[in-house]
Amino acid sequence: MATNHEMLSKLQQAGESGVDLSSPKAFVTHLLGCGDMEAVLWFYKPNSVEFDFDKYKKLTAQVTAN
Length: 66
Known about the structure:
The protein is mainly α. Helix content is 64%, strand content 0%. Helix 1 (4-16) crosses helix 4 (53-65).
């Protein structure tokens, strides 16, 4: 499973590619287009089908702060 650092890197790369990081849907679509299903699942709450928006917002805040 990916680490926070790896996911920050994926977010940064997506942002540099023009993905709107304010939209979790845009980021997930980008990851699916890259065939990175594991990264998509990383943002879901454990043992749930619910996307963890708080986790996503926390990481995107770190990316946009840099």
